[in-house]
UniProtKB/TrEMBL annotation, chains A, B:
Keywords assigned by UniProt, alphabetized: DNA-binding, Repressor, Transcription, Transcription regulation
PROSITE patterns noted in UniProt: HTH_LACI_1, HTH_LACI_2
GO MF entries: DNA binding
Keyword Ligase appears in the UniProt entry: no
Protein name (database record): LacI family DNA-binding transcriptional regulator
Length: 346, 346
DNA sequence: CTGAAAGCGCTTACAG
DNA sequence: CTGAAAGCGCTTACAG
């Protein structure tokens, strides 16, 4: 009752269960936890009593004893972004079945706020921390390197000697370029984000490698912003004053917004997608990818899976399992829609 | 140390602080909490000792005594959506300074998952719950009506007798239509989402009211999907085979994606925005609103503020303040960009 | 002005 | 097979 002032009855305690069942709290505890030895009859009677009274153990008390709170902290600076969302859902999914709850800590880019949250997490005796962010080559504004609890990094820069989960961006780029090659495209351009992002270089490297492997020419990647506007500009650079033979027949874009801009610009020039030019995006941001005309084929970073894996890894560290430090790169997948022509299986 | 197996020292306890300072734990506790009476000197010595040892009280133990855990649960089924994100950030912001941490519970639309999360929250003795979702006229798949802790609803349908926070959608619609009127637009159309959404009717009602107040004709709102595609279709319905006098000079759209579709369709027909037609969207989803050509004027629901208010309201209930049940509607605001011409202050 | 005691709700050796 | 005792880390009356 959210607004009713009537004093709700306090939760049933183990003591009440025990006295209702006519046993000691020790015995009641053991009966409910499947510990100790007693007649099946006694155990069942106690359990039934607990059920009847709606007993639920106070996990604060349990945590105090067990030195394990069954909570973890999730630190992020990507509160308005779309990356942390699927990631958080994945983390949450992986943990809920283990009875572990997740504290959401929005640290923005503010060290003071970060410290505030980290202190709160430590005070609340979380079993571990997952740090996540909006880009893989920047560290959160907090030092997590000397905590006494396990830390897992996911989609943010890890500390030296820590465990981090990332998407395999180079692999994702390969998927895209290989797809173009398999479709018979020969003049494949790459339009990406700012040079200040590590992933821009990683994807560009993979782009060059795949083309080299296929004996195809690689143009210098066009670097700009992560925006539709840059997609438009890039098309101008690619096509203005060029003869047919010099223009690309495929464009691999650094994200879906760039791809959207590219597709719109091509349409406005009367250039057919996918007939004349194939386009692939990155991120598989469904709301964008499905709204482009035609719908956009895009590389998906499998962020929910990344979150799941990070959650499970943390659980295993908390459980005392050892794990090697280092970066784990998880594969991307290509989601084929209609912007490349001849869709595989479509 | 995320992967290092070296056994980290356990946290410093109050007992250790007390013995280091040569006092009893009771005195140490009182010194640190500003309770009891003792010489300022003793108090300061104890505090200094605590500081030196890096003592941080175990909030699990504190919670057990105080019957207050300084945690709340945030239930949502909008994990992939964009509504819950600013809202969650607002909630988190409002609570962090009060030392209250937020459990993130992704219940999707699964009653089993919902119950699992609610039980976990109750077991962990959260002080209260905030329920949020992706639309205002649907209830989460869980019954929150008979909990013993306060519940606040935000951007999801509340239970009878509960407290809910919503954006004032009718007010937001008024803002948009009044803006058109003030700019001298006379034939204002409304293109919105599916009739199954309550907000669609609320906004349409406000649309009609404002036009009536200005003595302007209201066309029947065009209802469809929340998508760009529907924006395109709607333009066809509005303009195909119509003479100039029958077509609108302004379109108020139910969300930014529809508005984007409308703007793109108009451009493709060679109709100038904002010269010939003004367009306003809803949601102020920045990444969309800023990418339309021209940038889109849009109604912002102030979701972060909604989250803040919800958080503060919960805090006040937890603190024992009474509050009247009912819906609190928070005002929207119009973010003026360039899709209506003559931008105010621009 | 300071400390011994009881207790929050539970679990876990240890006796009987 | 069951229970009394001690204890997790803290706080709060209550004595002295």
């Amino acid at each position: 009752m959210s607004s009713d002032a009537s004093p709700a009855p306090p939760p049933v305690t183990l003591r009440e269960v025990a006295s209702a069942a006519g046993v000691s709290v020790a015995t009641a505890s053991k009966a409910l936890n499947g510990q100790g030895r007693m007649t099946a009859e006694t155990r069942e009677r106690i359990r039934e009593t607990a059920r009847r009274l709606g007993f639920r153990p106070n996990s604060l008390a349990q945590s105090l004893l067990r030195k394990r709170s069954f909570t973890v902290g999730l630190l992020t600076n990507d509160t308005y972004g779309r990356f942390s969302l699927p990631l958080m859902a994945g983390v949450s999914d992986a943990l809920v079945d283990a009875g572990v709850s997740v504290f959401l800590c929005n640290v923005e880019d503010d060290p003071r706020l970060g410290q505030l949250h980290v202190d709160a997490m430590l005070d609340k005796r979380v079993d571990g921390i997952i740090a996540t962010g909006k880009r893989i080559d920047r560290h959160l504004p907090i030092d997590l390197s000397n905590l006494r609890i396990p830390v897992i990094y996911a989609f943010t820069q890890p500390d030296a000697g820590a465990i981090g989960f990332e998407s395999d961006d180079a692999g994702g780029a390969r998927l895209a370029v290989e797809h173009f090659c398999a479709l018979g495209r020969r003049r494949i351009a790459h339009v990406s984000g700012p040079a200040s992002f590590a992933v821009v270089h990683e994807r560009a490297r993979a782009y060059r490698e795949v083309l080299a492997e296929h004996g195809l020419p690689a143009a210098e990647p066009l670097l700009g912003a992560w925006s539709e506007g840059w997609g438009h500009e890039a098309v101008a650079k690619l096509f203005d004053g060029k003869g047919r033979a010099e223009t690309p027949d495929a464009v691999f874009c650094g994200n879906d917004q760039i791809a959207r801009g590219v597709i719109d610009a091509l349409r406005e020039r009367g250039i057919g997608v996918p007939e004349e030019i194939g386009v692939i995006g990155f991120d598989n941001w469904e709301i964008v990818a499905e709204a482009t005309r035609p719908p956009l084929t895009s590389v998906d970073m499998n962020l929910a899976t990344l979150g799941r894996e990070a959650g499970l890894a943390l659980l295993s560290l908390v459980g005392g399992q050892a794990a090697l430090p280092g970066i784990r790169k998880l594969p991307c997948r290509l989601v084929v829609r209609q912007s490349c022509g001849r869709p595989v299986g479509g």
